[in-house]
Amino acid sequence: MNNSEVANILYEMAEMLEFKGENVFKIKAYKKAAKNIEELEEDINILRKKDELGTIPGVGKAIESKIKEIIDTGTFKAYEEIKRTIPQEIKKITSVPGIGPKTAYILYTELGVKDLKGLIKAAEEHRIRRISGMGVKTEKNILIAAKRQLAEDNMERFPLGIALPLAEEISRQLVDGIYIKEIHIAGSIRRWKDSVGDIDLIARSQEPHKAIDAFINMNNVQQVLEKGNCKGSVIYKGNIQVDIRIVKDDAFGSMLQHFTGSKEHNIKLRKLALAKGLHLSEYGLKNSVTGKQKPCATEKEQYELLGLEFIPPELREDRGEIEAAIEGKIPKLIEVNDIKGDLHVHSKWTDGINTIEEMAYAARSLGYEYIAITDHSVSSRIANGLSEKRLLEHIEEIEKINQNIEGIRILSGTECDILSNGELDYRDELLELLDIVVVGVHGSVDQDKTKMTQRILNALENEHVHILAHPTGRKFGKRLPFEMDMEKIMDTAREYGKILEINSAPQRLDLNDNYAKMARERGIKLAINTDAHSTEQFNNIRYGIGTARRAWIRPSEVINTLNLKEICKFFDIS
Ligand code: DGT
Ligand code: CA
Ligand code: CA
Q1: How big is the CA angle at 314 (ends 249 and 294), to the nearest 5 degrees?
Q2: Cα(199) to centroid(ligand 2), Å
Q3: Which of the listed residues 200, 264, 550 should we mutate to test ligand 1's pocket, taking the one with most ligand atoms within 8 A of CB?
């Protein structure tokens, strides 16, 4: 049990006591203990071992013994007992903001409301206003909040590749230079998380009412969930929720920082502020003694006031970034501009839609110095994989184009299937003719862990192989990652000097941030490729870069930041 798990059980206990209308002091005691445990610096298990649980503020003898019970058994007796007497359905209602346990209990006992749909129905039928102490206004607020909660519960998470373009489309629609001067995307999208719950926007405006009106009246809004004075919330086409906060110039940085999150990052930051006698909120930093509020116009300013170096959004996950920022040791992360070429690109020869030349020109216009055309191998039938004969023609064609094109070098490559037994789809003699050999698993994806791991290891041990493409094979909404022993695969990749890919295709993002970090920490080199099947898809590189930045990756750790001369030397290409 970690600190927050222990705290959660105590919070739940307090909540259940509230349902029952128990003694308020008892309830407060549980909440206070829970809060202090949540904000504790030390691991509660260590305090337990040192017999120092009593030193936690708000933990008296009674609660101390309960905490011990929780650490030992994962729960405690009084908690289990009271849990049995409360219908668990009511809890769903308390997830609605504004409905506390006491209200939920009344709604349950008086109206038989036991879930969100029942609650919405009761409000729509005006039954809530008849309960003493509730009134029309409360009923209205409950209806709004309940609808919003229901929408949230029904919402799945969205791939970043869906959410980000929508967020950009909305921002373009809304910025008019008059009422809304600027919009920033915040939340998990700004942190480049691979899947996101919703779209969070921060708009800079001196006229919040007008800005909110524009927001709820924009195109493609399916439902308005909330219209406040300086915040709003809608369901946009595609069933994605969009939250907006409107802020005036002076506190823009504070607001943006707060709603960029993550929650974990913000909690740690708030603790740090407290230690400096400051209270941190979305409105800025407040001096706890003088009560004076200091809004920050930029995030940088706010971090500086906390004694921290600026922290890039991608790092804000409480994975050591605050500690690094205190010491001024935030690394210089890789950027899109560091990329000098793409080592995984398709053409019309297999399943791409553009010719080799078109792909090369598009890459050149992005400032790339090289691309590797890595069309599919013979077994990829659906992808029109190249037979041996066609592969040889492919190599020849690339040679010819290279003689006639300036400003970019086309490397001849393959994306060679790793067959189900681990053999490669082309003979070694053919692989040897290519500049770049990318390998990947495409068929027989349901193998068990032992087989799949061995299959990939076999491929990595081949001396002609350079890069393992999309190592886990996951595709959002389509395919889970393969069963595979990633530790073993990474050990072998390092031993044989093989490169692992961060595939930037938004439906893949593979390696993901965690695995990319794992590779980085083991000193394995990475390639950030787009796997482009059309000229437009080169633009997907930003997703791969976002993922790499979340993995704390520096330019020197990525092979395709090398310039043409360096990369030819690295791969021994003449
Ligand atoms: P998502 O939408 O699930 O992909 O993740 P986020 O990180 O975008 O979360 P969201 O949309 O619920 O809230 C946006 C940011 O607002 C979040 O990253 C941090 C801040 N925030 C929201 N709720 C809390 C909270 O309870 N405490 C703190 N400290 N910050 C919060
Ligand atoms: Ca969000
Ligand atoms: Ca949100």
Answers
A1: 30
A2: 5
A3: 200
